Prior knowledge:
The chain starts with a helix and ends in an 11-residue tail after the last helix. It is built from seven helices and eight strands; from the N terminus they run H-H-H-H-E-E-E-E-E-H-E-H-E-E-H. The chain is an alpha+beta fold and 200 residues long. The chain has one domain. Strands 1, 2, 3, 4, 5 and 6 form a six-stranded mixed β-sheet that branches. Strands 7-8 form a two-stranded antiparallel sheet. It has helices at 3-13, 17-33, 35-39, 42-52, 141-148, 157-162, 185-189, and strands at 57-60, 68-79, 82-93, 98-111, 114-123, 153-154, 164-165, 183-184.
Amino acid sequence: MKVSEYEGVIKKCYKDEKLIDELVAQKIDFISGQKIEFLLAEKWKEIIDQLRNHNLKVEDMSYLQFPNLKLVVDEDTMFDYIKERRSLIIVLSLLCPVYTYYYKYSLLAQAGVGFIKIGEVNYLKNNILQKFIPNMHGIDVKKLIESTFLDYRYESHYFLTINRFDFVAPYKSADQSKNSTGYSFFEFLFESYPLDGLWD
């Protein structure tokens, strides 16, 4: 969907903002209530199993309180007291049939029994960062998702992050003031917090 189409939907609804807010909240609460049932569906389990069958370290993050399905594939390497983490993040929205995925490169420093983050960058196809993609053992992420969730379509995480809505707030965002700085499409459809260190 183009930016203008999203804006058109918002403008049509804006006349009765309070009613729209109530209807959207009801719908999202209903979806969230059904989330555990959805999580147990064979489709999501199939995605995770296929990744784990390639000896990938997969963390299912769908317990998070947002209407989405999310998983993270991490590949860690230690250099003395520094951990290099190469990650693939896949997120499916439960608000509409759209999914996205992106990579994250992180450096973490050992601090006692745990680690603290030094820095990270989120990206998909940036030429400089391609060498930091985790080894996916030949798995085609788009093919994996679209062969399992047939009605879902891909949208670029970069597009979803740089395009914004003004004067509205995402579901259960910490800031419900609907400020003029706006929130990204990503925050509305996938997670209620922004990505840091974004590259294309």
